[in-house]
Amino acid sequence: MNVLLYLVPLALGLGLAGLFAFLWSLKSGQYEDLDGAAVRVLSDDDLTEESRK
Fold first, then answer.
1. Farthest CA pair distance, the chain
2. Contacts of 25 (CB under 8 A, 6+ apart)
């Protein structure tokens, strides 16, 4: 029963850390361009003229 005195605050702390990480990622713009990465994989803008031949 004494282990709950350590595990409950640890679980709350980890939950708060996850919440702050999620909020930080929202604020830094991680979810603003969800489709851009999928389209950039298919584009060949980074290829040079010699590699296209």
1. 71
2. 31
